[in-house]
Every structure is written in structure tokens, then in C-alpha cells.
Amino acid sequence: MKGRKSDWDAGEEAYFEYHCLESMDSSDADLWLRSHQTVEILGEAEWEKEWGEGKSIQERIEAGMPKLYRIRFNDGHEGTAYEDELYTSPEHWVRDDPPAGRLDELESS
After folding, report:
1. In Å, what is the CA distance from 29 to each residue of 5, 23, 24?
2. Residues 82-92 pLDDT 10s
3. CB-based contact 24:58 (threshold 8 Å)
């Protein structure tokens, strides 16, 4: 899969693009509003490892069972990202940028 990796190691840098509900009403609005930024991989988060071991990234994503990683943004915010939201380069992003200035609004509420 172009622009993606089968495994990310702690300490690596990735390019994050949020792929769920793009809305201020989303429970993950804090991640959506940080879309299209670089992140530091902190390590794998809990996921269905028993099922996914030995499967390719393509097989995991097609089955709806992608790996989950803990990530840190440059502003120190930490969250989780599925492997299909992490890229080796921003040239592979397909979504629009999130609205500018809305992160401050979210954090002040």
C-alpha cells in the first residue's frame, strides 16, 4: 500500500491523517483538528493481535482490523491512530485539511 508501512517502531515519525467523523461533534475532534501533522510513534496500542499476526497491512485494513498505535503530536497531545491513518509522506493524504483555528476553540470549551 503506497505511503504506508506494515509496522511502525517507537520513536519513528509518521504523517497523520484522520479518517473518521470529521466534525466538532466527534468524540475524536481533537484528533481530526490535528490531522495533517507529523506525529511521533510511541508504540503499539492494544488491538486484536491474535487475529492480525502474520497478516499484511492490506489484509488487516480490508478486514476492518488495522493495528492501533499510540502517537504524540508536536504540541504534546497524545492519542491513538490506526495504521491506515499513518503515512510515510504527506503526498499520500487524500482528505481536506481540517478547519484552521478550531482546535483553540475546542480546547477552550
Report:
1. 25, 6, 5
2. 999 999 999 99
3. no
Q: Write the burial class of residue 11 (CB in 10 Å: 0-12 exposed, 13-18 middle, 19+ buried).
A: exposed
For the sheet with 37-44, list strands across it.
78-82, 68-73, 37-44, 13-16, 86-87
With left for phi above 0 and alpha for psi between -120 and 50, is residue 102 left, alpha or beta?
alpha
Eight-class DSSP state of 12: -
pTM: 0.88
CA distance 25 to 67: 25
Contact 78, 72 (CB under 8 A): yes
Q: Look at the alpha carbons of 40, 42, 48, 52 in this order and tell me if their dihedral is positive or negative.
A: positive
